[in-house]
Amino acid sequence: MKPLRALLILMITLALLALSSRFMPKVFNRGTVISAPELVADTLAEVAEEKPLVDSIAVEVLPVQQPDVTIFPDTFNLMHWSSLLSKANKQSLHWLYFGDSQLEGDRITAQLRRMLQTEYGGKGLGFLPIKNSYLVHANLNLYHTKDWKEQVIYDKEVKSIGVLGRNFVYQPSDKKKQGEIILKTIDPKRPIQGHQFTLYYSTTDTLAKLELQANRQKKYYFNLKNDSVFNSIRLAFDNDIHHLRLKFNTSKSITVHGIELSDSVGVYVSNIALRGCVYPQFSKMNKELLKQMLKEINPGFVAIHFGVNLVPDIRHSYGNYTKALVREIGVLKSMLPDVPVLIVGVSDMARKQDGKWYSYPNIDAIKIAQKKAAAITGSGFWDLSKAMGGKESIARWVKNKPRLANRDYIHFSRAGTDSVAKMLNRALKYQMIKQAGNE
User: What are the extents of the domains in the chain?
Assistant: First the structure.
């Protein structure tokens, strides 16, 4: 009986170990643990293959105490942002996060916003364009009549672009003088986050008007101003908002530079995605418009997250890229001299060779260019590819369960973007503690 009993105990132990291994998180690069938050449909690739995680396990992410993961020059003063966070219960704070297609669909920023608003308060998506793809995961649909035309910063002969790098212009026809925008919740039981709505606009029409209706009930009427390159209308509501309808009347044109969903206090991380760009396009924006919009939004922190579109252009060095980043950040800092700017380093990318996926050989060269730009402009630099696990990490993220990157070996999955957000948040917290200790 004793040998049989021992055999049974051994078999049960092995079964338990096999079962538990299914729920263990993947570990990368010297103890880097990738989290497994709830997964939702990805907006870029392989949407059908992504399935929600049920009862996913919350685990610790990157131990940011490792000094080689995060590099901040001494001139990068995070204490400005830390000081503002301590007052978030009395005022609204804005983090503008600029990036490429890695950000589209509120990726990375959604998780950052959730964490910061949980800790410091606030409800709302922050500053965003009237474009529905940005609201996929926010329980919010946004519609506008077909006579609105989108203008993007890299379009030729576009001159009146502001912070978002895009705007929407309503041009009336001979038959129609009214353009509409509608914000509507997908799930009627969940309101639009935030009780404060702000419209950023411009017009040359002295007789332009706006009718705004909230929850299909109360209506508000405004005479739109034309005395500046930029104006705004802000409304605070006592009740939750499920539906907003904006009707613009003009005989000329009206440009909407963006909207804002927020409250009067708390933290707001705004997603500003510029697909296809290798750096932000501040130098191409209307300088006066950009200056006035930044003054109105009053951001306390800015992140610059680009690089994946540069990777296929393989070179040994990227001196011109450094110069471009320095130029663009210089434009921003001339208007926001006290606001810390963080460059988020290029993420790992891979290409297939001899049937296997290998990281591009120029990732380190691009990071060197980004680090130089950070040092020259007094910005911060966070090494995202190293935080991911270094070379071939994107391949491991694709194979991870849950999958943290899509099979294009470029873009993160929703779970991956949430992991990036958590790692970045911890890195910033660690640096704030470090700087506070040195004061």
Answer: 27-122+265-439, 127-264
Q: Are 366 and 321 in contact (CB under 8 A)?
A: yes
3-state SS, residue 399: helix
Of residues 199 and 3, the one with the higher pLDDT is 199
Tokens read off for 305: 């997250």
Instruction: Return the residue matching tokens 């998506």.
Output: 125
Cβ partners under 8 Å of residue 86, min gap 6? none
DSSP state letters, 185-225: ESSTTSPBS-SEEEEEEEES-TT-EEEEEETTS-EEEEEPP
Whether pLDDT at 112 is above 90:
yes
Q: Which two tokens stand for residue 7?
A: 């055999």
346 pLDDT above the threshold of 90: yes
Q: Enter the tokens of residue 45.
A: 């690739």
Q: To 5 degrees, how large is the angle CA 251–CA 255–CA 258? A: 145
Residue 298 and residue 345 in contact, taking contact as beta carbons nearer than 8 Å: no
Q: Please say whether the beta carbons of 164 and 153 come within 8 A.
A: no
Which CATH number is 127-264 given? 2.60.120.200
pLDDT at 90: 94
Exposed / middle / buried, residue 89 (Cβ in 10 Å: 0-12, 13-18, 19+): exposed
Closest CA to 376 of 330, 413, 421, 429: 330
Is 27-122+265-439 a CATH 3.40.50.1110 domain? yes
* DSSP conformation class of 58: P
pLDDT at 75: 77
Q: State pLDDT tens for residues 379-438.
A: 999 999 999 999 999 999 999 999 999 999 999 999 999 999 999 999 999 888 888 877
Write down the pTM of the prediction: 0.84
